[in-house]
Amino acid sequence: MISTGFEKIIEERILQAQRRGDFENLPGSGKPLEIEDDRHIPEDLRLAYKILKNAGCIPPEIELKKEIHQTRELLAAMEDTAQKYRTLTRLNYLIFKLNCLRKTSVEREMPQLYAAKLAIRMDTKPSS
Known about the structure:
Layout: H1 5-20, H2 46-54, H3 60-77, H4 81-102, H5 113-124
Helix pairs in contact: 3-4
């Protein structure tokens, strides 16, 4: 392989840095590299996603999922009924917002928490 002048300059600078010890004691030294699995991201969008991630920008869907998870944990630790009701209402709103954002079929939506309980109540009501 024939090296260009630019490649020779790069190689020389790398060798100088090695001699000075610039590559020793770097953060993560001796640990395996953490390579992210980005196969699910289209190839032409991978660089943009990486830049946004490094800048701390999170897609709205992921932010909502985090908030839903935190709200569920908060709800599980609550004992006050009124506060639980308000938090459950907030949680169902967040789930509704996530489902609207996704624009997917009803079968793939995240279920709201009260839906199953309501269905059970309707099934167990005495018929007249």
